[in-house]
Design a protein that fits this description.
5-stranded mixed beta sheet, alpha/beta, 55% helix, binds zinc ion, globular, 11 helices, Glutaredoxin
Length: 252
């Protein structure tokens, strides 16, 4: 399945790359190595740091190869050709990443090294979450994406991740929780604001506990507060403190 690919890395992180992609493979390896301690320490309450399995990343040199590997290696259903905004996919301990060498022709993104590093951090959060979760299939999209965008800090540095929330907060148009649960777009745009809110209100240990114990997908039921009261508190926090944090966004 990976004939012609070379391999670099160590017992903890392995990156496979096509001929001519060695430079990007080294960037990928160093970004994953750099992000791994923070992801593991975030989830370490449950002892994940001992015996975390090897993480595998494959750098796909083109869109067709990305789609093939997502389907055949990760066994994730994907439309072919996949949408140009799709540039990475994680499943179990592995991730398939579109190589930056293909961005110009086969994605909607310009290649920005800092964004690429945060993207790998984001995918690593998905891997850490899936490893810890007792039932990842039940976890709602808004929570998983929210966790990955929040912990990778994409929201704090990349306008594309914060724009919808910024605009919504400024216009005082915040979606309800039901809307975020129902809509993929809202899940991507607003999920991280909920994870941000849960973490600041209840602490990182509570976020970890939700990841490690939520079996039925009802993540908020594990909080000591009713859904309506949570929504009111979220609206309040997002409209004040988060608005202020976003106003100071560096955009780098
Ligand atoms: Zn994601």
């Amino acid at each position: 399945m990976l004939a012609g690919y070379s391999r670099i890395g160590d017992p903890q992180v392995e990156v496979r790359h096509a001929p001519g992609e060695r430079g990007y493979a080294e960037d990928t390896l160093s970004a994953i190595r750099e992000a791994l301690p923070s992801v593991l320490s975030y989830f370490s309450y449950f002892g994940v740091e001992q015996g975390f399995p090897r993480i595998g990343a494959v750098l796909a040199p083109c869109r067709a190869e990305f789609d093939r590997l997502v389907h055949d290696l990760l066994r994730v259903n994907i439309e072919r050709p996949s949408h140009p905004a799709r540039i990475a996919q994680a499943q179990r301990m592995d991730m398939v990443v579109l190589s930056p060498s293909a961005y110009a022709t086969e994605s909607t993104f310009p290649f920005v090294p800092a964004h690429f590093r945060r993207l790998l951090h984001h995918e690593l959060v998905h891997i850490g979450e899936e490893f810890l979760s007792p039932n990842i299939e039940a976890v709602p999209l808004w929570w998983s994406e929210g966790l990955a965008v929040h912990l990778s800090r994409q929201w704090a540095h990349e306008p594309a991740f914060a724009r919808a929330a910024q605009t919504g907060i400024a216009a005082e148009l915040l979606p309800s929780l039901s809307e975020i649960e129902r809509s993929r777009r809202h899940a991507n745009d607003w999920g991280w604001t909920w994870v941000w809110f849960v973490e600041r209100t209840y602490g990182t240990a509570t976020v970890r506990e939700i990841v490690a114990t939520c079996v039925n997908g009802d993540v908020l039921s594990l909080l000591p507060c009713a859904r309506d009261a949570l929504q009111r508190a979220w609206r309040q926090a997002v409209s004040t403190d988060l608005r202020d944090e976003l106003a100071g966004q560096t955009g780098s």
